[in-house]
Each structure stands twice: as C-alpha cells, then as structure tokens.
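Practice problem: predict the structure.
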Amino acid sequence: MIPAIQERFNDQILHEAANRYGITPDGLKNLGGFEANVYEFQRDNSAYILKITHTIRRSVNYLLGELEWLNYLAEGGVSVSRCIPSVNGELVEVIPEGDGHAFLAMAYEKAPGSRVTKEIWGPDLFREWGRVIGRIHKLTQHYVLRDPAVKRQEWYEEEHLKLRKYLPADDQEVIAAGEELLTRIHALPKDSTSYGLCHTDLHQGNHYVDETGKITAFDFDDCGYNWFANDIAIILYYEMQYKSETYPTRAATTEAFLTHFIEGYQEENAFNPEWLTLFPDFLRLRHLLLYIVLHQAGDTLPEKYRQELPRHRQEIIDRTPRVEFDFTRIPVNAPTI
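Answer:
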C-alpha cells in the first residue's frame, strides 16, 4: 500500500472491513499490494478477494464507476471477477477515520485458474485473449452510466501523462516529444465503435487461465475511456517483451500475438484495419507514461529501473519505435459482426 495510506492503516480498520463482509481477520490471507491492501478469504465454500484502499487515492464514486461497469460486463457474459456486495448490500464500504478521510473496502470473486505459463504461451491463449477484449469492446458500446458522478476518467486525464507536473522543467526534449505525441493522439477521431470505457491494463498479470484455456479478467482499477486500439496496444506493449523459444524477438511475438488475438477478437467484435496504423503511436504513448511513472517514484525507484532511465529517455526523444514491424501486415477479415 502507498506509504501515506499505510501509515493510517491499523488492525481496527482491518477488523471493521472483515466484519462488513461477514468474516473475521483470522480468515484473511494477506496478498500484499502496492496501491491497496489485498487479501483472500473463504466464505460459503467460495474464494474471494478483499481490497482496502483510501480516499487519498480514490473516491467512492470513482470506485463505483469501476465496479458497476465490471458487473455490467459480467452480466453480459464476459468472464471477470465480479464485485460482490457487503453484508450491508454495498459495493463499496466506507470506514471513516474521523478527519474527513476514510478507508474504502470492496470484495470480488476470486478468478479461477492461475497465471499464464510458458507451456500455454501461444495461439490458443492469444485467441482467447482477443475474445475477452472483443466482448468487452462490444458490450461497452452500449453501456449507459447510471449517474454522471461515477464516470471514469478520459485517457487525457490520466495523472501519469502530466508531463510538466512530474518531469524536470529543464528536460525540454522529453517534454517536447511527449507533447507532440499527445497532440497527435488528441486529434484522432472517436465514435462508439472505436472509443469507450476500457480495461486499459489487461496484460498477463491481470488475468488467470483455467485448465480449459478460459481467461478470467480482473484488476479493473485503471479502467477509463480510451480508444479500443489503445486498449489492445497496451496489452501488446507488455506481451511483445515476453520472449520464448517459439517467438525469440519482439517482431516475432508481435506478429504471432496480434494475428491470433485479432482472430479471437473478430469472433466478438468488428476490428477496423485502420486501427493497426495507430499502434506505433499508442505503443510510444505507453512508453512515455511509464517514463513519467518512474520519475514519480523518486528516491524509491529500484536501482535496476534507475539504470534504464537514460535509455528510456533517449528513446522518447528519438521517437524510437517500440518494435520494428509493419503492423499493416496483420491479416484482418472483413467485418461479420
């Protein structure tokens, strides 16, 4: 948990959170967590995940914007870790501290299965991944907010994209390259078939795979409004760095991943071939965002990441592609959805 929040956390808070979900602290298994304290618990012979965060980081309405959409997706047939209500029937439990701040607790069904392994890293996994994202994108086109107050952020409201707030004022080369990229992306067209509420972080660390190959998605904490193409590019950003004997280079991984991912995606939603031309900029956008995240860490940044900062910086300045690859080579079938 974030240090400023951890300083406020104590056994009384934990006991109260557990009580509101009908369990005792002794029944909680601590799973750690950076931005929230995360626990596993059993109830009625089923496994669940309890997350405890704070109003320093999130508001009740902002969390409800995530959880209501998450459960909408579950009702629409997407395999996700659904949010469950507390014993009081609340999706978010508020535990006041007395100074205007509060801890916020929520619980989810635990996803079946386990992490992705090298044994299943291949076409079948990629296609299933595409089906999940395709189904999410299909459903989100018809999602209606219950209340504007719970609306999630637009892509450009992302805290980690505030260059001038977090980067040194004298780092004008990075700021100029970043603002040039942001300006170009701001100009992209939007409509309901290409832009909407997205997960924005469904890399292999945020889903489990069961013995049948079915993916269950979780950790929707970063969900927000974005281009569907960027939702896919964010996944690719991480997965193209996963080298294997079958796909030994970024280009080989990129081609295999996208080819089979889009096959699965098109079973659920139409994929516009023009999206492929946007991938280079969206990959650079993720690279820029992570550079800013590393700067925000300050003195707490691990040494291995600190050593990578000069290279990371130069890649942004030089507009270096994240992968040398012609994305238009990826086959896309004519729309049938």
